[in-house]
Amino acid sequence: MELYEPVVESEEVYMTPPPGVSLPPGHVCRLRKALYERKQAPRAWFEKFSNKVIFLSFTTGTYDSGLFTRTTDSRTRLLLLYMNGMIITESDYVGIAHLKQALSSSFEMKDLGKQHYFLGLEVLSDTAANYTSDLLSKADITNNKVASTPLEHNLHLAPNAGSPLKDPTLYRQLVGSLVYLTVTRPDIAYMVHNVSQFMSASCSDHYATVLRILRYLKGTMFHGLFFSCTSSLTLRGFSDADWDFNITTY
Which ranges carry the Reverse transcriptase Ty1/copia-type domain (predicted)? Predict the structure, then answer.
């Protein structure tokens, strides 16, 4: 969202008249609003906005003054402000609509819809489809039929399943890539764990199982993780162990 609102000056500020404006000798202009690009304007704007948000029961972030949070027993609402750009997120769309309405009563706002771009960052919903497509090309099975499951029925891999691979390099590369893919595709985690046990002694049956996983991914290439707004899942973030050492910023 973007906000547009002149801010009343909290202090007396005078300026010489701009070109084209004539005043009697000895007269200057007194600003009634915070003029854009004046050094006092950002502070006046942020003070007005933060007072409004705090009035709506939000709390200013400890380490980021532009991050406001409001937490209740059932949900958490986040508002991130940078200049006149703003992101609002919550587990309930109704709550977001109410907040927009409350802010619109004090500020002129433009709703940009679903978040796609903010501060030079493009926001995407990633299904790792391109990554999966590259794996299919590497294994040279882009034209193979898809598999309905990543695992054959009653399959039990053994250390000496089939003939040893003459060059296990491709096997190791594919399995390593699949291990990375399990971060967003937990449905293949069990089988990837199985085939990763034979990295040092790979056989033909192990490689066939890897191809089976890839054929399953071909048919589910655009599947991804979906976090419902009604989910009880709690996301936790962790920072670097040396984060508190940056005393200049924090």
Answer: 11-152
